[in-house]
Amino acid sequence: MLLARLGHRVLMVDRASFPSDAVSTHYIHQAGLSRLQEWGLLEEVTGAKTPAIRKMNFSYRGIELNGFADPIDGIDAVYCPRRTVLDEILVNAARRAGAEVIEGFTVTDLVFSEGQVTGIRGREGSGPEREFRASLVVGADGFHSTVAKKVGAELYNVRPAAGFIYYSYYSGLDWGLHHKTGFNEQWIGTWPTNDDLTMLAVICTRRHLKEFRQDVEPRFQAVFDDVVPGMGVQLREQGRREEPFRPMRYPDNYYRRAHGPGWALVGDAGYHKDPFTGWGITDAFLHGEILAARIDEGLSGKRPMDEALAEYNKVRDEESAGVYDFTTTLAELTQLPPFFHATLGAMSTSQEWTNKMLGLIAGGVEDHEIFSPDALQRLYDDAGVPESERVYDPS
């Protein structure tokens, strides 16, 4: 969409036919919604009757942070659209911008010439193999990326995945947004979505996966009973599951080299982290916008394409590092490291600091506004934390 709006000739192929569902946490942070707003698409998301959420109920092993981030670019809510809604909005926007879209197309290979990617091969449905040539091939094809495999994009900063997810959609519940980690390495999440349904999800550590698979429904209920007993009662008495459970046994957290001769990667194809903080869609929007700008510079001759793509890779890594560290730490579902235990505990005593922390998670507050030495001093002073209990070093 962005490249077509800049006047470039774009072909988009996708194995799916839209509207199409996808295994996804649905959550779009305010930083991601600001991109939809900038692109003129946010009203389409809200127009699809996607509920506005203006309070987050967050807890981690007894530490409560209940509130909401300050507005970002005037956006004072978050939304969790079904992928059947969001993806069709994006695909149609790409078409309107002038991109050619082929649905139901499976990419089977890349075309190479003298070590450079020059196109793709694949089939539309069961039709004959087709080949398309291009100046650049972008793989936005998820963590099982065909493009990444074919070019041998190496992994780095890999951290083992801690858990797995099961989720489904329920009627009869009016819970709003909850993000709660219990004391037994278990997590529950709830957020309203389209069609008057609430998405309910649980995360457990990998060692529970085998037993969970054997009896999903009672195990799912048991996690709610353990983490928030009152919600467990309501789920049992009032909730009605409307669709099958969807499992997500996600891969390890990783970065992939995101560019090379004739190719680039974006979204989970190039960078994946635990879904615990719900940053997948937002990062895809932010990084997609950065990549489109760099590709435009390369295609228009403003700078060499290799140089432009290398900068995209660098900026992506730098801007995502904080969320990556925070996500992979909390996703362990175990006792917090001393630094995070001290800081989150202090924030929980103040609505101002709670909202500021939720603003950091939402993408509207920078790390230094909370974690610089001066900010930490103010935080501990405001919370009345004794000097002996203050921790300043995250390492």
UniProtKB/TrEMBL annotation:
A Pfam family this chain is assigned to: FAD_binding_3
Domain FAD-binding stretches: 2-325
SUPFAM superfamilies in the cross-refs: FAD/NAD(P)-binding domain (SSF51905)
Protein name in the entry: NAD(P)/FAD-dependent oxidoreductase
Organism: Streptomyces sodiiphilus
